[in-house]
Amino acid sequence: MSGTGRRVVLLLLDGARHDVFASLAARGDLPHISRHILDPGGMTPATTVFPSTTGVAYLPFLTGCFPGTCDVPGIRWLDVRRYRGRWWDDRDQVRSYCGYQGGRLNTDLRPGIATLFDLVPDSIGICTPFTRGLGDGRERAGAARKVWGGLAHYTGGYGVLERAVGRALVRAVREKPSFVFSVFPGVDGVTHFHDPAHPDVLDTYRDFDGIVGDLAQAGGFDGETLVLLVSDHGLSRVDRHTDVSLELEAMGLPTLRHPLVWRRDPVAAVMVSGNASAQVYLLPGRVRERRFALAEIESGAVAPIPADVVRRLAARPGIAMVVATDEAGLVLVSRDGRALLRDVTGGVAYDPVTADVLGLGPPAVLPEREWLARSLDGRYPDGPLQLLQLFRSPRTGDLVVIADRGADLRLDWEVPEHRSGHGSLTADHMRCLAACNVPIDGPLRTVDVFPLVLHHLGLPIPAGIDGALPRYGVR
């Protein structure tokens, strides 16, 4: 218990686009949200994390840490430090949270990272795949998420699940726990079948507004309750599938990929997240402690990988950039040229060597929060820090491939086909919803929600997190 009598309700509207939400609110289509959240508080400009994909992008809210810090670089990854290429014995070193390994999201985090569920023992989590730290009986709607969510993934019918989560939320707030985290997956799920402005998607927002009305009637806004309404990513319409695995196969490179998670003697492995970003691991099965640097690849030292593999991938339609490492940081390769990113004294250095890949202008060294402000309305919001944080994880690939706007990176085995997707570094995916029943100064990163929750509850904020406490509660 927080000991202050204060409470926090964190509502995650998975996949909600901030601009679609704002348009609906401006038209009067979200009356309960407007009355109880937007009128007393408001919306705040916010960015999610890279990769911008469900599950992985929940972690910042609940840990205050980026995916790279958590050592969870995507919803699919391969650990080159342990993977030896054996069919069954090494199966555990090839991860996918989109199936029976989903529960491993709770155990794959870097040791020592505390969750809000750990720090607030009377927490309740509703319809969340991440439950680490929840006490007995404090996970709710888990069965509904697996049964109805599994069916909805293939049919698009999320209404039954959304209503079940809404009922569980009302019951939970009546118990007056210090912290409630509730996931509503419908907007994300329905948008995958259509596009972000499709009538069925807009109806899902409106239905959620009714759930907020039920929450208010149940006392969910009473007293000193902080109510946060957030999304973990945006989405954009997919007009092109550029399958990275098929591109590598066309180069003559046998490639390991999901759902066929073993093949004899692959020379590459592709792990796709959200379908708009992908980790590429070269020579999987050769155990090693470090990545292959771009200079090694381009010198031909990583045989039989072609020396021009990065250039050829970056030139493909639908691919915005390929990111690799060098001795000092990251190299960003696009069809137009290259740029460099470095962690340096004083912040982050960006150098558009032959192309302004991130669209940030001439070379500069700025504190990472200034890069956030500068890039917020650009093509790749918070791009400098988000790329650097991902490579903190030893599980991140030798190459990270990022889809361009309107594209994703999977065609083969994309069941059902995504007509809208996410996972990229583009603005449509990185800009997310952040609204609260008290004003919050922005721009906000999703990792900043973690210290905000703890501060409101009067609890200490752990050292070493990536989030920073925003100024809130003052107009």
Write structural notes for this entry.
It contains 16 helices and 25 strands. By secondary structure, the chain is of the alpha/beta class. The chain folds into 2 domains: 7-72 and 109-236 and 427-456, Alkaline Phosphatase, subunit A (3-Layer(aba) Sandwich); 240-421, no CATH class. Helix 6 runs antiparallel to helix 7 and helix 8 runs antiparallel to helix 9. The longest helix has 19 residues, at 199-217. It is globular, with a radius of gyration of 22 Å. The mean pLDDT is 95.
Briefly characterize the structure:
With 475 residues, this protein is α/β, with parallel strands linked by helices.
Give me the secondary-structure topology.
Blueprint: E1 7-13, H1 18-26, H2 31-38, E2 42-43, E3 46-47, H3 59-63, H4 67-70, E4 76-78, E5 94-96, H5 116-119, E6 124-126, E7 139-140, H6 142-155, H7 159-174, E8 179-184, H8 186-193, H9 199-217, E9 225-230, E10 236-237, E11 240-241, H10 244-250, E12 255-257, E13 268-273, E14 277-282, H11 294-298, H12 309-314, E15 319-325, E16 330-333, E17 338-344, E18 347-351, E19 364-366, H13 368-375, H14 383-390, E20 399-403, E21 407-408, E22 420-421, H15 427-430, E23 431-432, E24 434-436, E25 444-445, H16 449-456
Parallel strand pairs: 1-8, 1-9, 3-25, 6-7, 6-8, 11-21, 12-13
Antiparallel strand pairs: 2-24, 3-23, 4-5, 9-24, 10-22, 13-14, 14-20, 15-16, 15-20, 16-17, 17-18, 18-19
